[in-house]
Design a protein that fits this description.
The chain is an alpha+beta fold. It has two domains: 150 residues, no CATH class; 99 residues. Helices cover 21% and strands 32% of the residues. The chain has six helices and eleven strands. Strands 6-5-4-3-2-1-11-10-9-8-7 form an eleven-stranded antiparallel beta sheet. Strand 9 and strand 10 form a beta hairpin. The protein is globular. 46% of the residues are buried.
Length: 278
């Protein structure tokens, strides 16, 4: 996995766990919060339970490629039940189509509908595993299909239990919260083995869709050790994150990313399954 020059971190160069104390000490005053002290790998893996224990959250999602077609969305997630209700619209070159997509996540399953004058116009409510929905409707919903192959469309945070090669990259503010950013790779098989039975289907479905790769990702944890943002490379086979100095792959292709933000933990998150759901 390609890593940026340590010079980009300035005086907060990573030396063991020193960067954590240096960055959060300056950002928050008095050193890192107790929830962020210790081994980075342990902290990132523990963030799964710390965040899920909040029960619910609001979610915002952005996905795009340079100035080309993109997708933005928002909604609510019941983290404890593995359910989410999200609404998306196109951005960039296809924003003028006014396509809208409604997605309901129920563990590894999903319900997807689209409205609009372009490709989504023929997309009635379809149901199935999230990877199957991505494959069936790819030509009509791209690039939304890149999100559907993630665990629970990126809202199933149990994947953090499979974090490996974790590195801290410094402090950053996310939606008004002071956070520490960590870069890592995801071993979905390890995450599945470390998760309760009810959370395993979403991880297994993602592993089947993505394949046997260690997907790169970044996560931003707040002072309570909860996830405020997670970021994936759109292509899970690319061994890079935005900590890479250049946002271009070796072949010159622009690298695109999926950003998922979590906020308003504990707020009401009603998720209504369409007719026919359990």
């Amino acid at each position: 996995m390609s890593r940026p020059s340590r010079s980009r971190l300035g005086s907060a160069a990573v030396v063991g766990g020193t960067a954590v104390a240096m960055v959060l000490g300056g950002a928050c005053g008095g050193g890192p919060a107790p929830a962020l002290r210790g081994d980075p790998t342990t902290l990132v893996r523990a963030a799964a339970d710390r965040t899920i224990s909040a029960q619910t959250a609001r979610v915002t999602i952005a996905l795009g490629v340079a100035t080309g077609p993109g997708i933005v969305g928002s909604g609510v997630a019941n983290l404890a039940l593995g359910r989410a209700q999200l609404n998306f619209q196109r951005t960039g070159a296809l924003a003028k189509t006014q396509d809208r997509f409604d997605l309901v996540v129920d563990g590894a399953e999903g319900y997807l509908a689209g409205t609009g004058p372009a490709a989504a116009g023929t997309l009635r409510m379809v149901q199935g595993s999230l990877p199957d929905l991505a494959a069936q409707a790819r030509s009509r919903i791209a690039p939304l299909d890149a999100l559907l192959v993630r665990p629970g469309a990126g809202t199933a945070l149990a994947f953090l239990r499979g974090a490996q090669k974790v590195l801290p990259y410094g402090g950053q503010e996310v939606q008004g919260a002071s956070t520490m950013r960590y870069s890592f790779v995801i071993d979905l098989a390890a995450a599945e083995a470390a998760s309760p039975p009810g959370q395993r289907p979403a991880l297994a479905a993602a592993a089947g869709a993505i394949g046997d790769v260690l997907e790169p990702a970044d996560v931003w944890l707040d002072s309570n050790g909860r996830v405020r943002r997670v970021q994936f490379a759109t292509d899970p086979k690319l061994h890079t994150t935005t900590t890479k100095p250049s946002l271009f792959a070796e072949d010159g292709e622009y690298l695109s990313f999926i950003d998922i933000d979590f906020s308003a933990f504990g707020s009401p998150a009603p998720v209504s399954l369409p007719p026919g759901g359990p």
